[in-house]
Specification:
The complex is a heterodimer of chains A (169) and B (172). Chain A folds into two domains: 95 residues, Rna Polymerase Sigma Factor, Chain: A (Orthogonal Bundle); 74 residues, Winged helix-like DNA-binding domain superfamily/Winged helix DNA-binding domain (Arc Repressor Mutant, subunit A). Chain A is built from seven helices and no strands. The longest helix of chain A is centred in the middle third of the chain and has 26 residues. Chain A starts with 7 loop residues before the first helix and ends in an 8-residue tail after the last helix. Chain B has a domain of 46 residues. In chain B, helix 1 packs across helix 3. Chain B starts with 6 loop residues before the first helix and ends with a helix. The chains are: A mainly alpha (169), B mainly alpha (172). Chains A and B meet through helix 1, helix 2, helix 4, helix 5 and helix 7 of A and helix 1, helix 3 and helix 4 of B.
């Protein structure tokens, strides 16, 4: 994909088209709609400002998601620091929507398992699932070798796979 | 049976990120290897677990509208910055050109190199001088008509006013 910073309106439309995916990924990381919407906007504005630094040989999507993941990580770190120095109650994550009890229960189990994954392992799955990124793109986005990304995915998928009983398939 | 592929290759297989020929090879291996089938099944259940996660609440139209507004404002800011930069560049180029002109006009001219006369002209002049000298040296140069003397200053008879020629003749 070729991006021409000389055509700002085209670029703006392109960035807006990424908004739902970036929002989905970031929401899964931070767990709050208002924060995810803010971070999505910051991500795409940063991308717009930093278009000149975008290396054309890389995938544009991977570049955008790398910015998004970094934004979400920074926000999570800030929250953790504030949690250490403040006794204020932390904002709670969005409540899961209503749905069939069994599906909701399973979703909560998977959510809990996801929460127990290491941050880096979890991000690989989120980028694959919400960003719809190939593992090669995830490697580009995280700056890690493909082998490392696959090892992370393997570790995380095995843990999640154990949550789904074999007979249920 | 061929040796089992690396477990990470089953992830690419489950995610449909392997080439068609490799996919065929892996499928052949699967049909003969229980261990790899179990491994793949576990990974596929992991992908399935991801599917059970609740989708995030939909992105609000208001957030998209704000994003568009902020991007447009940023675009306008960049355009203004770009125009200012272009004007600055133009002004810089014009100032540089003016400086060059000013230097050309107001600096004293460089001392000129002495111009040498044309060689042929010099030769001609030398030849002419040499010819003149030769003429002067020759006898004919002194073969002048006697000047009309005033009567009071008439020389005695037999004694003529003589020039160098006569003198030389006498000495000779």
């Amino acid at each position: 994909m070729s991006i021409s910073p000389d055509e700002p309106e085209n670029v703006q439309d392109l960035l807006v088209a990424y908004a739902p995916r970036v929002y989905g990924l970031v929401h899964r990381m931070v767990g709050r709609r208002d924060v995810a919407e803010d971070l999505m906007q910051e991500t795409l504005l940063r991308a717009f400002r930093g278009l000149k630094s975008y290396q054309a040989e890389g995938k544009f999507r991977a570049w955008i998601f790398r910015i998004a993941v970094n934004q979400a990580r920074d926000w999570i770190r800030r929250q953790r620091r504030q949690a250490v120095v403040s006794d204020d109650p932390q904002p709670v994550a969005d409540a899961p929507p209503d749905g069939p009890a069994l599906a909701r229960e399973r979703a909560q189990t998977v959510e809990q398992a996801m929460a127990r994954l290491s941050e880096a392992d979890r991000e690989v799955l989120l980028m694959r699932y919400y960003g719809d990124m190939a593992f090669k793109e995830i490697a580009q986005a995280t700056g890690e070798p493909l082998g490392t990304v696959l090892a992370r995915a393997h570790r995380a998928l095995k843990k999640l796979g154990d949550l789904i009983p074999e007979e249920s398939r | 049976m061929t040796s089992c592929p690396d477990v990470t290759e089953w992830i690419l297989y489950a995610a449909d990120e392997v080439s068609a020929p490799r996919r065929e090879e892996l499928a052949r291996h699967l049909s003969a290897c229980d261990a790899c089938r179990r491994e793949l099944d576990r990974l596929q259940r992991g992908f399935e677990a991801l599917e059970t996660l609740e989708a995030p609440p939909p992105l609000r139209a208001e957030a998209l509208h704000t994003l568009r507004r902020r991007l447009a404002a940023e675009g306008q800011r960049r355009s203004r910055q770009h125009r200012r930069l272009r004007a600055l560049r133009w002004f810089g180029a014009a100032a540089a050109a003016a400086a060059v002109v000013a230097v050309a006009v107001f600096l004293p001219p460089e001392p000129q190199q002495p111009t040498w006369p044309d060689r042929e002209q010099v030769d001609a002049e030398i030849t002419e001088i040499a010819a003149t000298l030769e003429l002067l040296e020759s006898d004919t140069a002194w073969d002048l008509e006697p000047l009309d003397e005033p009567a009071s200053r008439e020389t005695p008879a037999g004694q003529s006013r003589s020039g160098p020629r006569d003198a030389r003749t006498r000495h000779g």
